[in-house]
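Attaching the record inline, Q. Sequence:
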Amino acid sequence: MYNKKCVNDIDVSGKRVLLRCDFNVPQDENGAITDDTRIRAALPTIRYLMSNGARTIMCSHLGRPKGEFKAKYSLKPVAERLSQLLEKECPIADDVVGESAKALAKSLHDGDVMLIENVRFHAEEEKNDEAFSKELASLADIFVNDAFGTAHRAHASTAGVAKFLPAVCGFLIEKEIEIMGSALSDPKRPFVAVLGGAKVADKIGVIENLLTKCNAIVIGGGMSYTFLKAQGFPIGKSLLDTDKLVFASDVIQKAKDLGVDLVLPVDSVAAEAFASDAQFVVVNNEDFPEDKIGLDIGPKTIRLFCDTIKCAGTVVWNGPMGVFEFDAFSTGTEEIARAIAGSGAVSIIGGGDSAAAVEKFGLASKMTHISTGGGASLEFLEGLSLPGIACLEEREA
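Structure, as predicted:
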């Protein structure tokens, strides 16, 4: 799908390198970082640049400041954490493309690093404004994009700067496109996709693309009730994408035509309310009560899904099986995660809630790859071109 030059394909010694990272990390009310996973994910590329004599100018967004300076979205806590992890001072400019950033960039020596402020403090960032992109690019000699989580956005710092600088990927993006690209183009079979989450509408493109590539597609979560309704089953007060019923029916038929095993729930854990302490019952599809909402897959469905997964050569998982944030309704998601972890298959977790679930259940180390991008991984699985990757230079065939 992609064959892009990586940072180790070019000479970075003595060069100023603009490195786009994804430092959009969660913080508490006092601004302390509560999870530095995204910062740690960028370290291999940062350390490579440092050890090869680059002068690294890192940039990222944080939150949604909507084009203006807001102190709570400052990257200063990120700079402090980077200084600790790198065991080297990582100064931060007071601005993005102003005098502070320019002066700090000029002062760098080989192996030095710095961070500019939140690129989304400028409205021009999300507009992919050409003048702003050019100004940002003027800080450096080379552009390296290592922010897979924003690669599906055509913003100034993800795609715009590539018009003005030689542009390559970092090791994180290289890993994402190699592993997920291989899964889509030449998977070890049987190839099984496990799809969940709330709405069918969020997964239309993924389902359509994977139908032509997978041996089996497992569908759980809130989105499964639209498929069950399309089959004529009662679903009570469960989530329903009414305008996607025809699509669901078409998918069911197309799967049959293509010989793809479409695996849907046969029972559910249902409750009267969407609440962590709601009383629940296990019901078969045909017996679903009118006054209840499905919040997790049932035990028969867990066995059915796990039987499909344990035979897989490659598993791609995107979306939880139920409301896993509530302990009472997390069993389905946890059992599917454990089945994938123990399957022996190439296991690719498509970011977002699936990645959060794997972390919650302590299974991250048992997965082949956990994508760092929720929306980006979804669009990749749809087969769409990601602007932040498409703009990078191609390796010679």
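The chain has a mean pLDDT of 95. The CA atoms of residues 206 and 235 lie 24 Å apart.

More tomorrow.
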